[in-house]
Design a protein that fits this description.
Layout: E1 8-13, H1 29-44, H2 49-56, E2 59-69, E3 78-88, E4 92-101, E5 104-116, H3 128-138, E6 145-149, H4 151-169, H5 174-177, E7 186-191, E8 197-207, E9 210-218, H6 227-241, E10 246-252, H7 256-261, E11 265-266, E12 271-273, E13 276-284
Parallel strand pairs: 9-10
Antiparallel strand pairs: 1-3, 2-5, 3-4, 4-5, 6-7, 7-8, 8-9, 10-13, 11-13, 12-13
């Protein structure tokens, strides 16, 4: 079993509270590492877990977990927990899990989940949609469909996402969040394989040759999974096609590092917008 055998790997650093009197990770914590990595695996599939299970009319329950110890992780080790869907039965899904320090395999095991009715916890066949999603992910297929279009084409999905993020989560007034610019803007919405809208953003022509990206919103449970970047890349491609050579955006203070990693550079002093600290940022399209 090699690190490269796992398309999905979740990075972690061993914390002081996780080591025992032998100064190595307590054996039970490896299952916690694997369980945490499984949550990351669903994000890598662009799958908001609870909404997806409601869509599939079921839920997953652990039936069996086995762990084999080959070596020990120690305090402050930087490790990766790999998760791979190995086999799908009628109602069960077998995952292989492994913990690596560099290329060294420390611990591995198997996790067996059963798809079941959440009301009765009786097993049900794994839905065809979930079966296909798992198989396609492990085969290397893309998990996102980013669509670009007008407000008439994508406004319903974009408005729903923005309401959840800006109004419900951040407390911005609805009359500020929706504006007249939506009608003329180009919008992008990222959908997963179940057709669920996950993230959105819009592009306006700010000045000759300058595009302004705004209203970037990603579902909270899927942040950090690369979905916001996919939306921004789609808008940047659209800007280039329209002859807009530079991009401008107003980043919320908490998102400045995200945009910096994507090549945006702060411009001017910080300011407040809708009661939230912002920073203007620029980059070439």
């Amino acid at each position: 079993m090699k690190r490269a055998d796992f398309r999905f790997r979740d990075r972690l650093r061993v914390r002081w509270a996780e080591v025992d009197m032998q100064k190595i990770v307590f054996n039970g914590h490896y299952l916690m590492y694997f369980d945490t990595a499984v949550a990351g695996y669903w994000r890598a599939l662009a799958m908001p877990y609870h909404e997806a299970m409601e869509h599939l009319q079921g839920d997953l329950y652990v039936r069996k977990a086995t762990v084999e110890y080959l070596g020990s992780a120690r305090y402050d080790d930087l490790c990766e927990a790999g998760i791979r869907c190995e086999r799908i039965g009628n109602s069960s899904i077998l995952f292989h899990a492994a913990l690596f320090r560099g290329e060294t395999l420390l611990v591995h095991g198997e996790l067996v989940y059963v798809f079941a009715d959440p009301a009765t916890q009786t097993s049900r066949p794994v839905p065809a949609e979930l079966r296909a999603l798992l198989g396609d992910f492990e085969a290397g297929a893309p998990m996102l469909d980013v669509r670009v279009g007008t407000w008439n084409e994508l406004g319903r999905e974009a408005a729903g996402l923005r309401r959840r993020v800006f109004v419900d989560e951040q407390g911005i007034a609805p009359e500020i969040e929706l504006d007249a610019a939506d009608a003329s803007a180009l919008h992008a919405v990222a959908f997963n394989r179940f057709g669920m809208a996950l993230a959105t953003g819009r592009l306006l022509e700010h000045a000759p040759g300058v595009g302004r990206i705004g209203r970037m919103a990603v579902l909270p449970t899927l942040r950090g999974a690369g979905i916001g970047r996919a939306v921004l890349d789609a808008l940047a491609d659209a800007a280039r096609q329209r002859g807009l050579g530079r991009l401008l955006l107003h980043a919320q203070a908490g998102a400045v590092d995200f945009y910096r990693r994507l090549g945006f550079v702060p411009h001017g002093p910080a300011f407040e917008e809708a009661g939230i600290p912002h920073q203007e940022m620029l980059r070439h399209a």
